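Page 42, continued from yesterday. The earlier attempt failed because a stray header line got pasted into the input along with the sequence. Redoing it now with the clean sequence only.
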Amino acid sequence: MSYLLDKKTQRKKFLNIFLICIFFIILFFFRLAIFNGFSYVIHKVFRPVLALGAIVGDKFKSLDSFLVSKNSLYLQNEDLKNKLAENNTRISNYNSLLAENTSLKEILNRKNPARPPLSGAGGEKNNLTLATILSKPNQSLYDVLVIDIGAKDGVKIGDLVFALGDVPIGRVSFIYNDSAKVTLFSNPGEKMQVVLSSRNIFMEIIGRGGGNFEMIMPTDFTPQKGDEVVLPGINVYIVGVVESIISDPRDSFVKVLLVSPVNIQEQKFVQVQAR
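This time it went through. Structure tokens are written below.
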């Protein structure tokens, strides 16, 4: 009986060894097919996960590209805004220079315009000489201009000076060889005879500085705001415009405040008229 059991056990061991050998033989000869099959199963099982990962990865790449593109567009937009602002500034400067150039051409193309002289000049035509303003109030004392023409250009003391637009603003008060000083009519304390155009009466105005004047007149001749005072003569040369009126019911006179029709601070050139 013991012998039969031992024999059965041996047979079982032999069978197990045989099956193991068969398994390794099959594994050796068919390892590629087995691994391929295993890979196929793994691929089938994890394919949805891999596909989802690929989609998510693509989305993140797209988001990153979007953010980079948006930042690039913002920088390009800022650059275009800066260039547009620079171009607008250039255009503005160009237009300003073009307007100034046109104005100068108009002046330089005038040929002895018939600007009637002041009283006593005989009614003959007078030459106009264009001058550049070298300094003006705030750069020079009181209401005084310094211009770039002088004795060598035929300028004389007392010559009338006009702002562009035929507005008399002062007279030459001192000359050098190649420059001259012009005292403005609005110089503090400066007195001059004018005509109140609305009433055709002669009045005296006094400079207050900064292009301002004042005059004292009877209440019976009180002007209106906007009335003009002009130089005596045939042609109308506006010196000042009534800005406001100061009155007192107890006083028989009123103080009239006037302002020059041009802002001397905006002027770059003047014209000098020979006497």
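Notes: Residues 104 and 130 are 9 Å apart (CA to CA).
Reminder to self: strip header lines before submitting.
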